[in-house]
Amino acid sequence: MAGMMKGSALERFTRMSIRFRDLGLIPGSLPAGALNAITDVPGVRVGHVTRIEGEGRLVPGAGPIRTGVTAILPHGGNLFRDKVAAATRTFNGYGKACGFEQVRERGVIETPIVLTNTLNVGRAADALTAYMLRENPDIGIHTGTVNPVVGECNDGFLNDIQGRHIHEEHVWQAIESASGGAVVEGCVGAGTGTACFQFKGGIGTASRRVLEGRFTVGALVQTNFGQRDELLMVGVPVGRHLQHDYLPQTGPGSIMMILATDAPLDSRQLGRLAMRSAFGLARTGTACADGSGDFAIAFSTSARWSHTPAAATEPVERFSEDGATMTALFTAAVESVEEAILNALVAATTLTGRDENTLHALPLNETRTLLRRYGRAT
To answer: d(Cα 91, Cα 255) in Å, to the nearest integer?
Structure first.
């Protein structure tokens, strides 16, 4: 499809082999999953579509294009028929998210989670609805309607955001190409045109295993937040040392934080888990600026809700809330979000967009030197 980037073309815009741990230190104390990604949670799939087209002066509606869409699937089945327990949390509500209110009311997610840019939320929601209608033609006729869940960040510094260049075919392709395994990070999908602490940011992911490996918590973030001098990396004030380097005049931005787990948490417990993502975000130094939209979505792959239950009641597995077990999950969420953000920063590469606006990549050599100077890296 024209405008899509695959294989070696996409790799030019991502440092796929570079992650935060490659700088010589491991954040947190819990063990990561095999991939250190949200896809370590069994069944979770991620798909991206990236659009990088044109250059030079902005022509609203025509380009340049620096945007994309990311889809997160809690499982590979029919989500409308087999919903998952979920919760959302808003830390600063300067955003245009779709579908959150019904998730708060009903406690389930029944569509893939789609991330895109701010002005594309409506089109993405329409495309997601159309996808669900194709898979479930009885929606709105013989059964209820469907609740599309869409999150966003503003990529207008690099992208012709007025053009709303994510269309139905892009959303569908992100969903249908979603897979388990390693997740591409950095300038990809919904993170194609976004920033992080006024460096280039984008998509990042990480995971943690808890309770002797019985359960996994994974995070995926779409970053577009933070002022340069705020940036902390495992407590090191990296941003203060780099606050005059490659500094664009970007706004306060936003972040979407997606948490997945295979622990059988109900919606109330998932709401508590989602709240802890704010602590992972805070570890990176941000104060959540007035114009920043900061949101979390959490879901459990093992807490399922049938669209057509066989009986009025059914037995379910309940997660013990005895303090230590929940704290372990909370810690996993905090560490996963923190490292996912750092991975987004490290993986992203310099990208120039409309009107020659440029977001520069985090300078890895300088960052490694700073981490060593503070005794945090080998």
So the answer is: 10
Separation of CA 49 from chain center: 14
pLDDT digits (tens, 9 = 90+) for 22-78: 998 999 999 999 999 999 999 999 999 999 999 999 999 999 999 999 999 999 999
CB atoms < 10 A from the CB of 93, how many? Answer: 12
Give 224-280 pLDDT, tens digit per residue: 999 999 999 999 999 999 988 788 777 778 999 999 999 999 999 999 999 999 999
Query: Domain limits at 46?
Result: 7-309+320-373
* CATH number for position 18: 3.60.70.12
Q: Can you name the residues that pair with 220 across neighbouring β-strands?
A: 205, 258
Q: Supply the residues annotated as catalytic.
A: 254, 292, 294
pTM of the predicted model as reported, rounded to 2 decimal places? 0.94
Among residues 121, 245, 166, the alpha carbon closest in space to that of 1 is found at: 166
The Cα–Cα gap between 72 and 196 comes to 21
**Domain count of the fold of the chain:** 1
Distance between terminal CA atoms of the chain?
44
CB under 8 A, 24+ apart: contacts of 134-141: 135/78, 135/80, 136/78, 136/80, 136/81, 139/80
